[in-house]
Amino acid sequence: MREEINFYLRKEEYGWLSNFWRSCQSDGLVDYSTNEHYYQAEKARDGDVRIWIREAPNAWLAMNAGRSLRKGKELRDDWNDIKVQVMLIGLRAKFMDEELREKLLATGDAIIHEDSPSDMFWGKKGEDMLGKLLMQVREELRKDGGTEK
């Protein structure tokens, strides 16, 4: 059986897998402090709201701001259709960082799970989408010339 990696809090051994992990990443136009900032900012229909979320002092505030966007008002109409792709784009940008890329590749073939106590979409108690996307990015990095450990 393959090893399993569970992560949730930044202070834990695999906390660097968390979207709350501070690591500057770029979408090609602007920089984000965390992947959470990027993901939550992309939810906003309005550019000023997107900037406010992007510049939130920490990932927790960015998350709460993004979650407060109302359907039919501030939230993009297409959000449910694109949210997985947005997360994937953000993860690819996050793991452009050399140190994080090497850490992800060093997980080998381990199954990765976000061990969220409540998230039924991204966490392992639900659809486990964050873990699936992290493993997809790891495989992409291998194919793009990353060194497997």
Word description of this protein:
- The chain is mainly alpha-helical and 149 residues long.
- The chain has one domain: Orthogonal Bundle (Tetracycline Repressor, domain 2).
- The protein has six helices and four strands.
- The strands form two sheets. Strands 1-4 form a two-stranded parallel sheet. The chain has a two-stranded antiparallel ribbon with strand order 2-3.
CATH domain class name? Mainly Alpha
- Reading the helices and strands in chain order gives EEEHHHHHEH
- Count of domain modules: 1
Supply Rg.
Answer: 15 Å
Percent helix, as a range, is 40-55%
**CATH arch. level architecture:** Orthogonal Bundle
Major sheet size, sense and barrel closure: 2 strands, parallel
What is the terminal-to-terminal distance? 18 Å
What integer is the average pLDDT? 95
- Enter the CATH topology name: Tetracycline Repressor, domain 2
Feature tags:
Tetracycline Repressor, domain 2; 149 residues; 4 strands
Helix/strand layout:
Blueprint: E1 4-7, E2 25-26, E3 31-32, H1 35-42, H2 47-54, H3 59-67, H4 79-94, H5 98-105, E4 111-114, H6 129-143
Parallel strand pairs: 1-4
Antiparallel strand pairs: 2-3
Helix pairs in contact: 1-2, 1-3, 1-4, 4-6
